[in-house]
Amino acid sequence: MIPVILRTKRLELSVPGTDDVDAIFAACQDPEIQRYTTVPSPYQRAHAEEFIRRAAAHWEEGTEVVWALRADGVLAGVASVFGLTEKAPVGEIGYWMAPGMRGRGLLGEAITAVVTYALSRDGLGLRRLQWRAIAGNRASASVAARAGFRFEGTLRAALPDRGTQRDGWVAAILDDDDRMPQDWPVLAG
């Protein structure tokens, strides 16, 4: 698959490259990224280098699309759609935001573009895009809810997390769903 660049009002989403290694390494030192994502912990520079190599390979294989989110040329975060196969028109979204870039609405802007691309016939052509997170990850859940994902429930002991299984929240958006923000019971109050 040929890598695609997505653009929003404030961001460029493109394949992460070797120039991003230091910024990815620095961002992945954040305790929240290590707590709520599958990045290795402790996170070493070699992990960022391997991530860059795998991102390019995944695009080529068509199994995952990975973007570096850049605001004014600075790495703001990463987003991907993974679990892509020729057998089923479904995928799963994942993302993280660098600590210094949070609170500006950039992640929501990026995820809206990724969802549009993933569910578009001119993009990945998916029928269903799923979101999962460790239960309690309210920041990620808020972004998904604002992007129109419908909360589907809590999966008990469903997500592997550093040698244990944690409860996970799951939500999805279908290609024919409206993209209006959703109210999720786990975000109430």
Topology readout:
Layout: E1 6-7, E2 12-14, H1 21-27, H2 31-36, H3 45-61, E3 64-71, E4 74-82, E5 90-97, H4 106-119, E6 128-134, H5 138-146, E7 150-161, E8 164-174
Parallel strand pairs: 5-6
Antiparallel strand pairs: 1-2, 2-3, 3-4, 4-5, 6-8, 7-8
What is the chains' assembly state?
Answer: single chain
Enumerate the strands of the largest sheet in spatial order, edge to edge or round the barrel. Answer: 1-2-3-4-5-6-8-7
CATH superfamily: Gcn5-related N-acetyltransferase (GNAT)
What top-tier CATH class fits best? Alpha Beta
SS-based class? alpha+beta
Label the overall shape.
globular
How large is the count of helical segments? 5
Organism: Microbacterium awajiense
Protein name: GNAT family N-acetyltransferase
Pfam family, one: Acetyltransf_3
